[in-house]
Design brief:
Elements lengths: L3 E10 L2 E11 L4 E5 L6 H9 L6 E6 L2 E5 L4 E2 L7 E4 L11 H11 L4 H14 L15 H13 L5 E5 L7 H18 L2 E6 L2 H7 L2 E6 L2 E6 L1 H6 L4 H6 L4 E9 L5 E5 L5 E4 L9 E7 L4 E5 L7 E10 L4 E7 L4 E6 L10 E6 L4 E5 L3 H6 L1
């Protein structure tokens, strides 16, 4: 299967720049999620790959084949790009049976009837809907309709699959079930897949790699583990799960660990800073809520002092807000039997291996994202 490569891709809508010089390769056979908030340019990027929009600048290649090039006025039409697409709205024909919806692309390609029927049955079997051949879309649940849309996208064995927030119309439990099914189906067919979403849990559970977008640009590309543990931008840290962001200066780079002077705090915080080679760099310390542990203040010999300002018990964990003595409130997730109450005095300990310094970041950038 071919990779998908974007070279300096740009798209304007009037004076607004929706996609700003995006260059990335979606690797052969991998599922890559494009993750970001509404308006960041991810769907516009997907539509240019699909051929629904032409780039104003830059080029798109599928493997070695040039698909679009603004400078050379090349734009292969969508129906000749050999890709399948699954839409957020399912986009099923309401007057056609399931079998006919799935067969639609094959009919447009003039595939013989016997071959077409065999391909439809195999595609529906792959999404476990072979018994629904003769039903109409309105007779199916939302999850079943989404499976039909997926079967239609894979029935003609495309080289590339595109997903435009396909699970956003489903309820939470069904979304989780469909994530697992999509991942399994992708593993079976092994095509290059680009999956657009604003849901970080969806991106992390489905993807081999994630590309985080912001303001029309790619902020960072990496595995879910890399992006969660080592964000290069405060917007990435904030979008990949919850985190506490603290302004400060890296005063010691280590090795193995650096030390940060947090604004408003006298003592230094130990952290990882592998991307920084020199001290006295301003930036932001990212501390995930699960990297923080609490102890009752009288029992703790060290740590940052504070008090519990909010507590929510969720059965398997507690979500807390702790107001620190120097004026900052942080979020904490604890898996323990300790019952904390609002007002409890606590000592806060940060796990140095799970504190990560982002050089050059500021809380202003976080608030503007």
């Amino acid at each position: 299967m071919p990779s998908v490569r974007l070279d300096a891709l740009r798209k304007h809508f009037g004076d607004a720049v929706a996609v700003n010089d995006v260059s990335i390769e979606f690797r052969d056979g991998e599922m890559t999620s494009v993750l970001g908030p509404s308006g960041c340019g991810k769907t516009t990027t997907l539509n240019m790959i699909a051929g629904f929009l032409d780039p104003d600048r830059g080029a798109i290649r599928f493997g070695d084949e040039l698909i679009a090039d603004a400078a050379r006025r090349i734009a292969v039409p969508p129906h000749r790009r050999n890709l399948g697409m699954v839409f957020q709205s399912y986009a099923l024909w309401p007057h056609l049976r399931v079998a006919d919806n799935v067969a639609y692309g094959l009919r447009m390609r003039r595939v013989p009837r016997a071959q077409r029927e065999d391909a439809v049955r195999r595609a529906l079997a792959r999404v476990r809907l072979e018994q629904y051949l003769d039903r109409y879309p309105h007779e199916l649940s939302g999850g079943q309709q989404q499976r039909v849309a997926l079967a239609r996208a894979i029935v003609y064995s495309p080289q590339i699959l595109l997903f435009d927030e396909p699970l956003s119309n489903l309820d939470a439990q069904l979304r989780e079930e469909m994530r697992l099914e999509l991942k399994e189906i992708h593993r079976e067919i092994g095509v290059t897949a680009v999956y657009v979403t604003h849901d970080q849990a969806e991106a992390m559970s489905l993807s081999d790699r994630i590309a985080v977008m912001g303001e029309g640009r790619i902020l960072q590309v990496g595995s879910p583990h890399e992006l969660y543990d080592e964000p290069v931008d405060v917007r990435v840290a904030r979008f990949l799960g919850r985190t506490n962001l603290l302004d400060g200066v890296l005063v010691d780079v280590g090795p193995p660990l650096g030390r940060v002077r947090i604004d408003g705090l006298d003592e230094h915080v130990t952290c990882r800073a592998p991307s920084v080679s020199a001290p006295n760099i301003r930036g932001v310390l990212s501390v995930r809520p699960e990297a923080i542990s609490l102890a009752a203040a009288p029992a703790a010999a060290s740590g940052l002092s504070g008090h519990v300002s909010a507590a929510t018990y969720l059965g398997n964990m507690s979500q807390l807000k702790v107001a620190l003595a120097f004026g900052t409130t942080i979020e904490v997730q604890e898996i323990s039997r300790q019952a904390w109450n609002v007002g409890d005095a606590v000592s806060v300990t940060l796990d140095p291996q799970r504190c990560y310094f982002i050089a050059g970041g500021t809380l202003g950038a976080r608030l503007a994202s």
